[in-house]
Amino acid sequence: MTISVLNRDGAELSLGQLHDQAEQIDDELMPCRSNNPELWFAESPSDVEYAKQLCLECPVRALCLSGALERREPWGVWGGQLFLQGVVIPRKRPRGRPRKNEVAA
Questions:
Q1: Sign of the CA dihedral 42, 47, 53, 59?
Q2: Domain 4Fe-4S Wbl-type, which positions (predicted)?
Q3: Is the pTM of this model over 0.90?
Q4: CA pseudo-torsion sign 33, 35, 37, 42
Q5: Which of 54, 60, 44 has the alpha carbon at shortest distance from 5?
């Protein structure tokens, strides 16, 4: 199965062609290429949230997310979403036992 989308001219592009177009974008505009790549696979929930926030302004965010969904990425932040075992999850929980009482943030 191939994913296709319409580009600005109305022509359909395959996922591979979209990837080729992403290669033409300056690396400085893509946070995963201009920051520490390990941030997108961090253990700390705060680092994961920071990576998700950085993705919001990325020009290829939708392409990244659709590709990760198609590949069922096993873990990491892709397209501004956190993946675990191929499924998007809302947030990363810290290690250890959950608190008995909710703490006000």
A1: negative
A2: 31-88
A3: no
A4: negative
A5: 60
